[in-house]
Amino acid sequence: MSTTTHTRPAPAAPWRSAFEAHMSEMPSPEFVFASLHASPDPQTPTPYVPRLRFCIYRGMWSQLPENKHNDAPQNPRVYDSDLPTFTTDVRMEKVGELFGSGPGHASRDEQVQGSGGGGPCEAVYWIKEKGVQWRMKGTAFVVAPDIEGQEESSGVRTVKSEIGGRMRVVEGGEEKEKDWSWGTELTGHFGNCSPGMRGSWRNPPPGTRVKGEPDQEHQLGQKVTDLHDPIARSNFRVVVIKPDEVEATDISNPETARRHKYTFVAAAQDGKGEWTEEELWP
Q1: DSSP, residue by residue, 250-277
Q2: 92 by DSSP, 3-state: which?
Q3: 264 and 158 Cβ atoms separated by less than 8 Å
Q4: pLDDT on residue 156
Q5: Statement: residue 1 has pLDDT above 50
Q6: Is residue 220 classed exposed, middle or buried when 0-12, 13-18 and 19+ CB atoms within 10 A define those classes?
């Protein structure tokens, strides 16, 4: 925790309660996540092209959703945040895209295997039942097993600084800060996934050509109950979205439709900031 900077008790983002209420009402909290992929043509005037895919919202970082089937150790209630998360496989292209389009433009395999990233992203959530679309623009960071290593890489330091800077200590949480662990939070997210979902991280490498039968360790349709399965955990990642702009467009009533735009304005001195709000035509 030495390189993590947290803010003291502060109010949640003004959009958060409505967003979480909408997420809780969705049959399946799916959303579209966009990142930037380096163009295969080095001569192109457009160095990056967009890539989109459906993902599943997994709650806000540092506030693991309750799951009676999750037997992973849990962190004490210390932090609050407005940082949506989802899980992925390190072998998926989105991970490399978040590293390659980030400030460090990391491209080496050993860098992408660890924590880091910071590439620009956009996430869109359509709540059909409410007639509301949420759009988040910002950056995204990857939390990997090295987050709890003895020696912190530059990627780990970046994650703890960028994500930690948006983690607020809840009332009474100061006394428990020393007991909160990034590694425990990562394992908790793995435990919150079903055995079948955990097994997907033992699948054959995504997107590779099918050549005969896969090896014994990488099979489709596996179920994993071991929270520390070495193969599944080596591929498992949590992606944390750090939004700088959030829009909620409510078209449930055509006569009163509105778009509310929230912008995070960082303070120049201490890294803290606040959200501003604008009401716009949809």
Answers
A1: E-SSTTT-EEEEEEEEE-TTTS-EEEEE
A2: coil
A3: no
A4: 96
A5: no
A6: exposed
Burial 91-115 (b: 16+ CB within 10 A, else e): bbbbbbbbbbbbeeebeeeebbbbb
Using CA atoms, how far residue 114 sits from 52, 159, 236, in Å, is 23, 11, 11
In this structure, what token pair is assigned to residue 186? 């990562």
Round to whole Å and give the CA distance between 113 and 116: 9
Strand, coil or helix: 261: strand
| CATH number listed for the domain at residues 16-280 | 2.30.110.10
Place of tokens 């992929």: 37
Q: Which tokens is 207 given?
A: 């997107």
The first and second tokens of residue 146, run together, are: 């090295």
| Cβ(125)–Cβ(134) below 8 Å | yes
pTM value > 0.85 = yes
Residue 18 CA to residue 31 CA, distance in Å, equals 16
60 forms beta bridges with 84
How far is CA 181 from its chain centroid? 17
Q: What is the per-residue pLDDT across 8-31, written as a single tens digit (0 to 9) for each? A: 546 899 999 999 999 999 999 999
The residue ranges of every structural domain in the chain are 16-280
Give the pLDDT band of residue 213 (cuts 50, 70, 90): confident
Place of tokens 């959009």: 15
